[in-house]
């Protein structure tokens, strides 16, 4: 009992120290980065606002959501707080400016997060298609994977093509150097990551797992995650030189050895430091490598930071 209590006290001290480290960094780093003064007039149509003809796919800083379809997962007030990473529906996330969705499914095509499940992936695709029908120049990266510990849904690749066929941008390395305008009217890059089923091939309507990479670490320590993100990002090639998407997740994860197991209060430790991360990327010389930037509980400040840097790149100022 004494040993357990001592360990918990050490954990709390470590978390407090790391939170202070980010707070101090925020105070010292300033508040400016290329595009920080740009505010999209309409987040629902922010790509259109920046300019589809000058917005290259490999110059976009894509605002993404982590575990995107968890707004109604599990049982409200019971199991939901342990798995919910977003409070908005897929449609409302897209309207708010999200352009990368992270969807995990199980064998029956229901969205899940670990052992907890929620609505069918049909709901996700319906929300996506509604958004596409209401906009003209917004491109969305839809990552769908079979959740760890689950089996692939049968013939899921065929199902995705049937549902999204007219909108799908086919797997092709040349896409990265094209502008949004050159890809229209196609609007969706769908990356399908099965566990056992065959991967999509070059020229297929779907994209294979290797086209979206990251270096996720499992920690609830905010400064540790922040510095790990910087370290791994700095090891990448510039976004304009890559033929894949690279994701940085501005999130931390509840740990079993810590009494706080709900997602929101834990991820809150890093959530507000997205702008600080971009500023530090600029200072440390790796801002040109930032591409997909994802978060829990996405908000307008996060979206505006991504869009601002994207605008600066489109204008040749970053």
TrEMBL record:
<dbReference type="InterPro" id="IPR000909">
    <property type="entry name" value="PLipase_C_PInositol-sp_X_dom"/>
</dbReference>
<dbReference type="InterPro" id="IPR051057">
    <property type="entry name" value="PI-PLC_domain"/>
</dbReference>
<dbReference type="GO" id="GO:0008081">
    <property type="term" value="F:phosphoric diester hydrolase activity"/>
</dbReference>
<protein>
    <submittedName>
        <fullName>Phosphatidylinositol-specific phospholipase C X domain</fullName>
    </submittedName>
</protein>
<dbReference type="Pfam" id="PF00388">
    <property type="entry name" value="PI-PLC-X"/>
</dbReference>
<feature type="domain" description="Phosphatidylinositol-specific phospholipase C X">
    <location>
        <begin position="53"/>
        <end position="195"/>
    </location>
</feature>
């Amino acid at each position: 009992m004494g040993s357990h209590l001592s360990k918990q006290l050490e954990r709390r001290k470590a978390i407090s120290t790391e939170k202070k480290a980010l707070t101090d960094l925020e105070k010292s780093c300033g508040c400016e980065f290329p595009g920080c003064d740009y505010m999209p007039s309409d987040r629902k149509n922010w790509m259109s606002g920046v300019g589809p003809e000058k917005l290259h796919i490999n110059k976009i800083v894509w605002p993404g959501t982590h575990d995107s379809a968890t707004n109604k997962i599990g049982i409200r007030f019971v199991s939901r707080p342990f798995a919910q990473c977003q409070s908005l529906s897929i449609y409302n996330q897209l309207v708010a400016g999200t352009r990368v969705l992270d969807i995990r499914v199980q064998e029956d095509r229901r969205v899940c997060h670990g052992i907890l499940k929620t609505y069918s992936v049909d709901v996700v695709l319906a929300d996506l298609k509604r958004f596409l029908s209401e906009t003209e120049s917004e491109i969305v990266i839809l990552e769908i994977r079979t959740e760890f510990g689950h089996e692939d849904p049968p013939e899921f690749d065929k199902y995705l093509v049937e549902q999204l066929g007219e909108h799908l941008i086919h797997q092709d390395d040349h896409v990265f150097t094209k502008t949004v305008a050159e890809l229209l009217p196609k609007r969706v890059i769908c990356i399908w990551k099965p566990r056992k089923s065959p991967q999509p091939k070059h020229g297929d309507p779907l994209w294979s797992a290797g086209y979206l990479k990251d270096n996720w670490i499992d920690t609830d320590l905010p400064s540790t995650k922040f510095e790990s993100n910087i370290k791994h990002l700095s090891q990448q090639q510039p976004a304009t030189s890559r033929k894949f998407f690279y994701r940085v997740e501005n999130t931390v994860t509840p740990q079993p050895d810590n009494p706080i197991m709900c997602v929101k209060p834990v991820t809150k430790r890093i959530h507000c430091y997205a702008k600080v991360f971009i500023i530090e990327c600029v200072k440390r010389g790796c801002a040109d490598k930032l591409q997909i930037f994802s978060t829990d509980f996405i908000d307008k400040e996060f979206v505006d930071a991504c869009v601002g840097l994207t605008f600066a790149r489109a204008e040749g100022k970053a």
